[in-house]
Every structure is written in C-alpha cells, then in structure tokens.
Amino acid sequence: MLPRSRHPLSRRAFVGRAAGALGTTLGTAVVADFGTPRRRAIAAAADRLRHGAPADAADDEQFWREVRAAFTVAPSIVNLDNGNVSPSPRVVTESLVRHLEMEQDAPVLVRDMLGPGTANLARELAALLGCAPEEVAVTRNATEALHTVLLGYDLRPGDEVLTTTHDYWAMQNALDQRAARDGIVVKRVAVPVPAASMEQLRETIEGGMTPRTRLVLVSQPVNLTGQFFPVKQICEMAHARGADVVVDGAQGFAHVDFKIADLGCDYYAASLHKWLMAPIGTGLLYGRRDKLAKVWPLLPTAPAAPKDVAWKFMDIGTRSMAPFVAIGDAMHFHETLGAARKEARLRFLTRTWADRLAKVPKVRFSTSFASPEMSCGLASFSLDGVDDDALQRFLRDRLGILVQSIRYDRASFRGVRVTPNVYTSPADLDAFCDAVERVAAKGLPPSGRS
Ligand SMILES: Cc1ncc(COP(=O)(O)O)c(C=O)c1O
After folding, report:
1. Are 443 and 366 contacting, i.e. CB atoms less than 8 angstroms apart?
2. Is residue 21 very low, low, confident or very high in pLDDT (cuts 50, 70, 90)?
3. What positions does the domain Aminotransferase class V occupy (predicted)?
C-alpha cells in the first residue's frame, strides 16, 4: 500500500499536483509550458521576428506554418468561421483535459484550489486589458457579461438605452425584456452599410442621443459585417451628455491590439472562445472601478459585500473550473504570437481574399475597407443572384469550407461572413476564392450534384 502522502488521493499529493498545474496556467510560473516542443518552436520563430515591425510578419509564411502546426485542425476542412467559435491550440485543449481529469480525482479539493487561482487569472486578463484586477470578472461567455450590465444597470421607467440595428440579437432581447418589464425605452439607430467613415458612425450614434439617454450599447466590431466603431469618440460624446457606454467586444478582444484606455468605455464584455482561442464557455466583463456600483449582479452577493469590484459578478454557484484554468494557456499562446503581429496577420488574410473577390463583378461587400481601422479579420459579402444560405451550404457540404450566412431581421442586409484565423493558410483562401469565383461564373450546381 502506498504511504498516505503518496496516495494519488492524499491531500498533500493532490494539492502538490494541482498547485503545479495551476501555477503553470494561472500563476506567475508560466515557463513550464514553454517546455512543450510546439510552444518552443513558436517562441523561437517569434524570437526571429522580434526586431521587425508587426506588419512585416503578416506574410511570413514560415512563421505562420509553425503557428498552424500548434493546432489540430482537420486538413480536410477549411474553417473560415472562426468568428463563431474558434478552435483552441493543442496546448489549451491539453490543459482543459488535464484539469477536467483532476476535477474527477477530487472535485472538492480542486474547488478549494481555485480561489487564489481565479484571482491570478483576473490579474493576467487585467494586464492584457490594461486595467486593475478588481475591474475584471471571468464569465462563461460574452452574453452573460453583457446581460449582467444591460439587466443589472440602475435604470428607471422612461430612461433610454441607445443601441444600433446591428448590435447582437441576444443583447437586443435583453433590452426588449427590460423595456417590457421595467418600462425603459430602447432606441436603435440604423447603421449605414458599408459605412463611409468612422466619423459617419460617430454621428449616427450621436443622432440617437436624447437628454434621457442613460446608457449606450455599441459593438467594438459588429458581428455581421466586422465593422469597427469609433468607440473612444462615442464614449467622449456620450460622457459629455451624461450617459455611460457598454461595449460589446465579443468580436474585438484579442482580435485587434488595444487597451481599455484606448476605448475609454465604462463597461466592456468579450467572448474568450473566439479570438483568444480559449475553451468554449469562457468570457470576461470589465467595469470601470467607479462605475461598478451602478450594476447589480444578476446573482446577488451578500449585502455587505463590496459593490465596486467586478468579482461580485462571479458568485454564480458550482461550475467546472477547467475551462477557466485553460484561459491562462490561451493568453500565453496569444502573447507568444504577439497581439500586434496577430492583428497584422488577420488584416493581411482578409485583404488577401477580399482583394481577389473584389475583381468579381457580382461580389458586394458589406464591410467597409475605406480606412484600415474600420475592419480587420472579419468581413462579409454577397454574390448577386445567389442565395447566401445556399452558398454557405454548398461550400460546407460539397467542399468542406466553413463560412457563416448572416441574416438578421433588424439589419439592412444579408450576406456571407468570412473569418480566417492565425492557422489559416494562403492555400485555404485560394480554395475558398476558387469556389466563389466558380459559383459567380456558373451559379450553384443543382442540389444533389457536385
Ligand atoms: C458581437 C457579438 N456579441 C455577442 C456575442 C455572443 O457571444 P457569446 O456566444 O460568447 O455569448 C457574439 C457571438 O457571436 C457576437 O458576435
């Protein structure tokens, strides 16, 4: 029989093992993961690029081949639907599985370990965002984070919340419910497609403001078109009129390189399972320290608990902590790639397919390419005379190419959304463009034939 301290379920042995794993992903000792050969290869490749400008790395295919090898994507699939949910690099999946197994060893002990671990995670996310750890809550997705603000923000009957026709449907539902239940007024301004300039977008939002506007909801980029908004200018305008701003950054976080100070918003929410490539079921909520007390948690904390810390939103009962732990691995992977380098690559990939399809007369873009800051790795188009759903189905069912057909009652357009990611190769984009050009020239094949 093993001595008690060496038994796999002894508290000392278990805690030692858990501490090692949590230290790797949540604490300061991140170097252990660099020991994996793949991480080391990418770190070495990134090191080779460290003296160049991020944009110089955008088309360095040798580097991006190393990055692709860190994923387990099936070679038979061309996944251009990463704006939906992105696959994680292998190092993240391995961490997720490792921690799930650990939870099966002794769930209660794992839970005991996670108090300090979660605080470390908030600290690392805060560093990425450029804010204080007390301003960050880890959530299960962007919907949970945004609903916390939209449903928990102090509002009275007749108070107005301003948003756009392009904001995400789940947030519109939250506002509509609040209108029905609490008598608030929801105002929506129509977004021009494609937008002519950032200034036009700022004016569009300003046009919907009234003396009763208390809160503005705006997407950093819109999920339908990839249209970025001039968030900083919108915040300045809203603040001057006494309104707070909540930013839907589900599609912005770890996609473009920014800090919270660049936005100047009061609340910010993101999915981490999109561009950060963390496990499915992870998100975050940022609240400016002096604005946190205005938001009631959806799941209440003790009456005496502090009101000005984002952690008050994390008392949601029992859940698996394994996905949360693996967020740390996703952050380290992101930092190894380099946020600016990744943004430059995503921009390059979009330009590659969009420039090629721009030569096809039937192609119409709903994304604005008028200036670089208006879009990045997410863009939409439609093909005259071709149904978007049918095009999506054809690409997926006949060619294994994944894109997203976009339909949304409130928005003024339909189209197909294309979102490559850091593991996307030029050959993937060629396969996609070849297929669209063929459909533009010959139409979709009758169903049942290829
Ligand atoms: C702009 C935008 N907001 C919110 C969401 C919801 O994100 P989640 O699924 O993480 O709740 C999405 C998801 O696609 C989105 O694109």
Report:
1. no
2. very low
3. 123-405
